[in-house]
Design brief:
single chain, 301 residues, mainly alpha, MetI-like fold, globular
Length: 301
């Protein structure tokens, strides 16, 4: 009798097992894996961006003490825009960023075109050298540029007998040269990405219609790779505006940039005015990076 009941319940039991299959150990591991990934992502975002949120929030703090909230105010932003030292440092940063970006964009674009379109001796060696500023630590590049400028300025001053006020010293000029040295690589990398997906048939069609090489480059090649060039220029401008380490080693008297000004104020005390300056720099950097990403996506599409 018991055996007969088990046989009768067999099809129903099989149907139920097919409708609700037993959960396997692998699916449970996958669920725990997803939870750990989500937890890791949340922890990473909190660890990276919570200090930035706190910095922005305390830039509106009415108290000069950075660790105590006493009310909302905009006076620190007003003091920042009326401070002569901050405005001078901001102007120096803007001059360095604009000049170095223009020079590095021209040289980086020419380098990218040469690397992608031509074959010449030691091309692979030059390709490896081109990536050095990207992978070399900033402290190493800063020290090497400091030694180079010290030697170069000494040779120039000795060769032309420059003394007194006419002596060449480190300043905005050396900072601009240093920024060009590492920005060329970033511009070249971005522009080369645009050139790799470039349709050369368009250039051939333009030449078949009677255009010379310069006209083809100006009317066909340059407009098509312009999003990549603008993306590289914005990236170079952002890196130059935010750079501290290399600027610290290559600057001189009267050539204080905004990151160095912030560093000098932090050594004395951390106050809401520093938070306000850092917030403005953060907003500018984020805006430029977002614009650069948009231009690069348009270039890739």
């Amino acid at each position: 009798m018991a055996v007969q009941q088990q046989v009768q319940r067999g099809p129903a039991a099989r149907a139920q097992s097919q409708t609700h299959p037993p959960r396997k150990a692998g699916s449970r591991l996958l669920t725990w894996g997803n939870r750990l990934l989500w937890a890791n992502m949340i922890f990473s975002f909190v660890f990276l961006y919570l200090p930035i949120v706190v910095l922005v929030a305390f830039s509106f703090n009415d108290s000069r003490l950075a660790a105590r909230w006493s009310g909302f105010t905009l006076k620190w932003y007003g003091l920042m825009f009326t401070s002569e030292a901050v405005l001078t440092a901001f102007w120096n940063s803007l001059v360095v960023a604009v000049v170095s970006t223009v020079i590095s964009t021209i040289l980086g674009t020419m380098t990218a075109i040469g690397m992608e379109r031509f074959r010449f001796p030691f091309r692979k060696t030059y390709d490896g050298i081109l990536y050095l500023p990207v992978i070399v630590p900033d402290i190493v590049m800063g020290v090497s540029l400091l030694a180079f400028f010290a030697l170069a300025l000494d040779v120039i001053n000795s060769s032309f007998n420059l003394t007194g006020d006419s002596t060449l010293r480190a300043g905005l000029g050396t900072v601009i040269i240093a920024h060009v040295a590492f920005n060329i690589s970033f511009v070249a990398i971005v522009v080369r990405t645009s050139l790799r997906d470039f349709n050369k048939a368009l250039e051939e069609a333009a030449m078949d219609l009677g255009a010379n090489e310069w006209t083809t480059f100006r009317r066909v090649t340059l407009p098509l790779i312009m999003p990549g060039i603008l993306g590289g220029a914005l990236l170079a401008f952002t890196l130059s505006l935010d750079d501290f380490v290399i600027t610290f080693f290559t600057t001189g008297p009267g050539a204080t940039t905004l990151p160095i000004e912030v560093f000098g104020r932090i050594r004395r005390a951390i106050g809401p005015d520093i938070n306000a300056i850092s917030t403005v720099m953060l907003v500018m950097s984020i805006g430029l990076v977002v614009l650069s990403q948009i231009l690069q996506r348009r270039s890739s599409n």
